[in-house]
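Quick one, probably user error.
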């Protein structure tokens, strides 16, 4: 089994004739797109709509493949100057589409009978949802050359600041145990069985941030101010309102979910205090023991072990999913292990041109790493379920993006808990799942609160590293309550989490996905095999419907707090079982 992913099906390198040919073709199509848009008013409407969409499809196919190759190269080696250079070139080419794309959408939105025109043409009917969004969002477009100017400015603005954060966190040296390691490796030690190792790793991690905190603070301040300016120019009420609009999600859905989370937070604090007591702590759980393993499931897994386990477990749910997992391992879709210069964390990137995905992890052999693999393979399955859509119909919104990934976690964890051979093993598995649940509820809520604080203050002041650490600590206290030791939190979480340097409010979608998936899994437990086709249809629907309409495929009303409370109650039941097991 390969330790690294195989990118050869994309290109053999930046000097590959196929790469150079596609770059030239992209430039050509972008120029054709711009030329056609300049003469829109002289075109017959249906023909113009068809041609615009056809050109956008071509651009999407070419740009997606080229950008994916460069981005994946850079993610495994942030020092890859050639990859960074090629990404810059690509972004420059793609930025040329901003103005004509805005012009097309503005023109299409003003057509008095757009809906009827779309319904008259079989090709255009596939893009009903896209055109409905165009009609709704046209009022947020910048006039004239505004879109092109904004796209170009972002190259040296938000995108550049985001790259800086990624570079600094992937290359900062971490002094530990008489030597030097990297941030990904040191953060993995949070799962170590030895409490002394966990504490020392936590202290080494916090110490390393002092070297980069000021630079990353500049990055965060700059990105957030750019977002505020963008929202004002476009007429959005707030950055959060813009995120909800882009997420195809109602404020009522977010309010219902957060209200349910507020109601259940004390239950999570109960879990944290019970874990703290079991580990010998008296004033709440210290941050460095959040991921401390408990019970007897301290087994180390190889990548081959992970494959065997996941294929077996997913076979109990759906053969199509199990087959895809086998292919992902066998055909080198996955880059497994941490190394210097490699991005931290984990992600899945869809390779639409191949009908495949590529997955990055920092696998260290813990059961949590196996669950992370299951999570990312859920994204890959989601990508597979939407493969039949047309090229411009494959962008599902952030909230539903975490549905399949978290559903996979539910399948794996439920099966593992059922087959546990002892109470100690069951405790270890339940506690591992509660770790993850606490992350998507307490930690995600703290990230949401932190970002809200940053936006509330950025327009009036530059927030230095100490101020940002203060905001983060306060957000963690509100979200973790008395479950954590207030003297041993993680004030630098804003430095290491890349989510703050990408899409605005890329935090609540994790809570949404986690709870939505648990609600869906509860339905699966009731309906059995009959649920699987419904589940696949729901995933297929995600790019062409609002989150509320997507949920209706499974008969769910997302604006009803009761749904979210029911999903949270499944976690609360596990917390009760955990507390019982640790007392015994």
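Nope, works fine. Designed sequence:
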């Amino acid at each position: 089994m390969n330790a690294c992913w195989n990118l050869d099906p994309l290109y053999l390198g930046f000097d590959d004739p196929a790469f150079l040919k596609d770059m030239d073709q992209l430039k050509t199509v972008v120029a054709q797109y711009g030329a056609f848009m300049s003469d829109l008013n002289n075109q017959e409407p249906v023909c113009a709509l068809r041609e615009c969409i056809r050109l956008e499809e071509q651009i999407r196919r070419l740009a997606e493949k080229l950008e994916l190759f460069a981005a994946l190269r850079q993610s495994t080696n942030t020092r890859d100057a050639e990859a960074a250079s090629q990404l810059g070139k690509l972004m420059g080419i793609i930025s040329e589409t901003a103005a004509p794309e805005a012009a097309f959408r503005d023109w299409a939105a003003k057509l008095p009978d757009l809906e009827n025109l779309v319904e008259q043409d079989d090709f255009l009917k596939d893009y009903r949802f896209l055109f409905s969004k165009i009609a709704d969002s046209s009022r947020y477009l910048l006039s004239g050359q505004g879109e092109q100017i904004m796209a170009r400015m972002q190259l040296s603005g938000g995108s550049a600041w985001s790259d800086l954060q990624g570079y600094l966190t992937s290359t900062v040296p971490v002094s530990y145990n008489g030597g030097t390691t990297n941030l990904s490796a040191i953060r993995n030690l949070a799962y170590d069985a030895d409490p002394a190792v966990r504490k020392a790793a936590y202290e080494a991690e916090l110490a390393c941030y002092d070297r980069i905190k000021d630079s990353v603070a500049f990055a965060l301040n700059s990105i957030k101010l750019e977002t505020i300016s963008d929202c004002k120019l476009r007429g959005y009420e707030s950055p959060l309102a813009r995120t909800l609009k882009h997420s195809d999600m109602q404020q009522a859905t977010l309010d219902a979910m957060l209200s349910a989370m507020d109601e259940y937070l004390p239950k999570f604090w109960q879990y944290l205090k019970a874990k703290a007591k079991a580990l010998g702590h008296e004033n709440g759980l210290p941050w460095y023991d959040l991921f401390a393993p408990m019970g007897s499931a301290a087994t180390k897994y190889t990548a081959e072990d992970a494959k065997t386990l996941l294929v077996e477990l997913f076979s109990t749910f759906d053969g199509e999913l199990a087959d895809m997992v086998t292919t992902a391992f066998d055909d080198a879709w996955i880059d497994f292990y941490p190394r210097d210069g490699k991005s931290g964390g984990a992600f899945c990137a869809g390779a639409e041109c191949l009908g495949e995905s590529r997955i990055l992890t920092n696998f260290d052999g813990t059961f949590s790493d196996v669950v992370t693999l299951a999570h990312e393979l859920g994204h890959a399955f989601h990508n597979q379920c939407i493969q039949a859509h047309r090229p411009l119909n494959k962008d599902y919104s952030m909230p539903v993006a975490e549905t399949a990934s978290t559903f996979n976690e539910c399948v794996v964890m439920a099966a593992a808990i059922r087959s546990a051979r002892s109470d100690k093993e069951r405790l270890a598995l339940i506690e591992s799942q509660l770790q993850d649940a606490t992350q998507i509820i307490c930690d995600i809520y703290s990230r949401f609160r932190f970002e809200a604080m940053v936006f509330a203050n950025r327009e009036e002041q530059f927030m230095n590293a100490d101020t940002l650490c203060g905001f983060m600590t306060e957000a963690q206290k509100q979200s973790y309550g008395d479950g954590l030791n207030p003297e041993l939190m993680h004030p630098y979480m804003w430095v290491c989490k890349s989510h703050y340097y990408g899409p605005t409010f890329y935090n609540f979608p994790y809570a949404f996905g986690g709870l939505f998936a648990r609600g869906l899994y509860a339905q699966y437990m009731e309906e059995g095999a009959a649920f699987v086709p419904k589940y696949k249809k729901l995933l297929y629907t995600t790019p062409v419907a609002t989150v509320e309409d997507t949920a209706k495929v499974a008969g769910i009303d997302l604006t009803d707090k009761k749904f979210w409370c029911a999903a949270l109650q499944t976690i609360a039941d596990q917390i009760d079982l955990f507390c019982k097991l640790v007392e015994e």
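The beta strands are 174-176, 179-181, 334-335, 347-351, 356-360.
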